[in-house]
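W.,

You were right to be curious about this one. When I first looked at the sequence I had no strong expectations either way, so I just let the prediction run and decided to look at it fresh. Below is the sequence, 534 residues in total, followed by the output.
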Amino acid sequence: MKKIRIESILENIIIIFLIIQPIFDLKIFYNSISTLIRTVIIIVFFLIYFIKSNNKRKYLLLIYPVILSIYAIFHHINAINFTSLVPGNFNYSLVKELLYFIKMIVPILLIYVLFKLKITNSKIDKIIQLIVFIMGFSIIITNLLGMSYGSYSDEIIKANFIKWFNNSENYTYKDLASKGLFEYGNQVSAVLLMFLPFIINKSIKEKNWKNFAILLINVFSLILLSTRVAVIGIMLVFVYTIIIILYMKNRKNLKNIKIKNFAGSIIVVIIYISILPINPMFNRIYEMNNQYDEIIQVDSQNIVDDESNEVEEDGVYNNNNKNNSIIENVGTKKVLEQNNYSKKEEQIKYIQENYKRKNIHEQFILRSYPYQYDTEFWTTILNLDIYTRTNYRYIEKQMVKRVIEINNNKYDKIFGITHTRVQNIFNIEQDFIEQYYALGILGSIIIFLPYFLLITIYVYKVIKSKFKLCSIDNLLSIITIFMIFGIAYNSGNLLNSLSFTIYFAILYYKLYNVQKDEGGENVYKEYLFKFKKI
């Protein structure tokens, strides 16, 4: 009886912890302290369940942290043998690097904790609904009250949703798109989009006003966020969710799913399509295209002047070769040899006089990788075509590539140049790419191995069971996981943030559960890891 009570208390604590996560994501609480609190709570729960287990097989779980620790040692040794042209070598910190590793494995520990708790599917669904309600409703209310932060800025929005229909004051997307009181719009968008398939599924399986209201809140809050991830993702999620539900209904002859139950989803889709044309996301695309056209037009007018520029004639850089191969050889020895008559003083003068006209972001050239320490690199960048040099993501990666090139250490590809240094140069807005430069090939494999291993094992078991161990939630989970990986690659800042990965752990827990009315008991308990015995 006492054991049951303790288990119940631990389960309730974790449930409460998951439900209040949106509070930690508010701008006012978003800091290193809140991250530390989350990390400590999850590690403590992992240790509780690890220590409670009497089975010796539990020590197999230590293989992963041991491998990661060994890698971390070599990662650090490689990090201290680092040379760059910039004083301070981008300020590597062992403490920050270790905290980054801990932050990256915490979601894996949480997945284990959830498996040990054996929270029922119905409770997980309620947790998801509460999280969506808290996040979505707060975004809607703060928008209507004009108190929300802009999705594309840290400023309070200038007009609420009502102004979308009659924007007589010509508000821009920065004035209208809103993320509530949260810190990052993209992370909130990804969380709400990740849970949307299960909210849709719940509203179809259990047709009632509460489930419909939460579905409407989920979609409407994504519309208000007005990020590309949110707006485009809504339709994508509805399409694959409905297809999966109909497929499983026919395959398993699910009596609780009736065609009339789709009415709520159809209503929400109609509302979404009706509002779509006036969404600020399209206003953003339109404005950015106009700005880009203006930049190209100005650049075209300056081409003749650039070709006859006195500094270029003196040998700073002659860009007669328009071949795209220059893009792949930024700052390499070949370019340096071709321009060995360039003088550093002339390059500095050229950069100072032209970087604004060439539309190079000041953050890049003045702070991330200061031009005065590597004039050859920035001279080459300035003379790239307009499409390339205004591609911020391209410049982000080229700066890091250049730093790696200057360091000239073959082990950087294996162990990386550290997360600390990459962040101090610039935060690359592409997960997996950022980890590749920061952790190297080996580090990236080790960090992400558990995520892909869990997917691989699940797919293997499902195929082996001839798809008997498969439910709507399982299929929704695995497709949504791959969708998230795609979003992370394109948008970045998801897989290295606890503000997202804690919710992501819930998705993996749902991946390994088959509801009783869809063909059986919990898959993980009977057929896979048998965490109960570990």
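Here's what jumped out at me. The first helix runs from residue 2 to 19. And, maybe more interesting for your project: The CA atoms of residues 24 and 33 lie 10 Å apart.

Coffee later to discuss?

I.
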